[in-house]
Specification:
disordered C terminus, D-Maltodextrin-Binding Protein, domain 2, 10-stranded mixed sheet, homodimer, 2 domains, DNA-binding, Arc Repressor Mutant, subunit A
DNA sequence: TACCTCTATGAATCTTTCTCATTGATTGAT
DNA sequence: ATCAATCAATGAGAAAGATTCATAGAGGTA
């Protein structure tokens, strides 16, 4: 029978490149591994590796098993970690996925009181997903997804947590700095700075530039909000940010937030969960706390600013 | 270490309701199971069941593990099945997911030549998905998804396979039978028959009725195309079908296909795969064959009708 | 060719798992 | 209340399985 060990062997051989090295990594002798491999290959009836001289190369079957290992082993590991948390009296870990770069600051304001209110629950935040946030949610890599794209799917549930306005930030010395609002055409000759996200997922394109048939002169990609803000302040480009984030930085930097279009660009952040998890109390509590910010400005975090912004 | 056996035990105890019964189902003695359970609980540091008199009830930790078991065990089983196919010289099983009821007839015309061309590949078709077709694709429950909703996600790839026109079918005796095309208002007093799908996913609502603010008088749900057609022919309601399917039945039944709106309702069917599977030859071949129908009417199936319809 | 490195294999040993036999506890029926 | 039936727990011995040691074979390299 195909066992967890076998998957571990396959994964380790792939990582280390040889049976001998994998054996050491697994704290076994080379002989033990060889025996184990021989046995499982005989049981499955198909080789996992082609022996090429002194080396191995995965067969088609082996590739399948490696993919299986990479999918299943993390789940085993996570389950064990969770069990050991239960063992220590802790409730579990709430794994939060973020598909919304600038929401990080907002999240911190939700997580702080949550950790205080649920001392036996840990929180983990992930930001990179092989199959996107929805995939991570469906694949049980995360328990909660913070995203601007709610995407109704069976088995999932999305709830809005807050509304905000997306604005363009420019340096105070920028020619556009004094306009009442920005038109798409006015960006045709600008350098746009954004997070490293597929442009098709940026609302600045979807809802502003593309409908007007405009493409900015250049598009730079930067990971961190702080650097983006500094780049903009130094006049090297413009960027789209939530108004509340822009305001926070505008205090300290030479920045001006500009309305995108005459009406402004309204956005919403949603929080997604699996319907199957509907009864997990500490998860419900998190969502309740997150949504609370929407209607009760003082409820989340420092209270220095309404979370609705 | 948490092993596959443990998950099997947990699943089986849940299915059978008792350790003793589970033991028999697993071809073990009750004693063996008891020992195994005791050991894994000691290793994990947390009980999996609360002992209630002579019975067991899952703890929170146990529920987690049961969920894990239900997620992982099928994947082990599928992998083993695939290995045994490799062992027999077969290439594997192409698991096709269908999110498009009436496409079934089309699929048969693609599958027939595919099976002939790839004698060492099996085909399996699934139509029910816990997390929807996309979830099934991401969760490796299927390898190919046939769907009208392409839904671009990272890690997935969608390709259009054919276009068709969605029409309304009514009985030949129906008052609407002679109109040039149907307006939304004309359905306000009708009984609509559809497949059992969430109305929000029916384009008849999304693109026709809802924009006009119309709701049909009744909405009946039926599983099989044949029965739907018979119900319509007998004057008990109207239904939306692909034109080519409607035509097929119109030959034999007293049916009339009607254009939906002045322009008609154009639809497209897509075929989705995981990008990671891009190099699997028999999968590429399937997609190639499926798309072929789009441009080469004689290429798929009986040739009695252009697959584009 | 000599040498190094990697995998394969047989036999012995050690570890784990399973069964048997038995006990204690709970439930339902008489 | 007692008896019978059912279920889980446990200890000891048996069976099965995994690991190691020692060694051979094979491919690549200097």
């Amino acid at each position: 029978m195909l066992e967890r060990v076998h998957l571990m062997i396959i994964r380790e051989v792939d990582r280390q490149g040889s049976l001998t090295a994998a054996a050491h990594a697994l704290h076994l002798t080379q002989s033990a591994l060889s025996h184990a491999v021989r046995k499982i290959e005989r049981q499955l009836g198909t080789p996992i590796w082609d022996r090429e001289g002194r080396g191995l190369r995965l067969t088609q079957a082996g590739h399948d098993l490696l993919a299986l290992a990479n999918r299943l082993l993390p789940q085993f590991e996570h389950a064990e970690a969770r069990m050991s948390q239960y063992a220590q009296g802790r409730r579990g870990t709430l794994r939060i996925g973020m598909e919304c770069h600038p929401c990080y600051q907002w999240l911190r304001k939700v997580v702080a009181p949550y950790l205080a209110g649920w001392p036996d629950v840990d929180v983990d935040v992930k930001q990179r997903f092989q199959f996107g946030g929805i995939g991570a949610l469906l694949g049980y890599d995360i328990d909660v997804l913070v995203t601007p794209d709610p995407l109704q799917k069976p088995g999932l549930h999305f709830a809005p947590v807050f509304d905000y306005e997306q604005v363009l930030i420019v340096a105070r010395t920028h020619p556009l700095a004094s306009v009442a609002f920005v038109r798409p055409e006015q960006l045709a000759d600008e350098t746009l700075i954004s997070y490293p996200v597929d442009p098709h997922r940026l609302d600045l394109y979807n809802r502003f530039l593309t409908p007007a048939g405009i493409v900015p002169k250049r598009h730079k990609v930067i990971e961190t909000t702080d650097i983006i803000v500094q780049m903009v302040a130094s006049g090297r480009g413009v960027a789209a940010l939530p108004l509340w984030l822009a305001d926070e930085h505008a205090d300290r930097m030479a920045l001006v937030p500009l309305r995108l279009g005459e009406e402004g660009m309204a956005k919403q952040i949603f929080i997604g969960t699996r319907e199957a998890d509907g009864e997990i109390d500490y998860l419900r509590a998190f969502i309740a706390l997150a949504r609370q910010g929407q209607t009760d400005p003082g409820g989340v975090g420092s209270g220095e600013r309404p979370p609705k912004c």
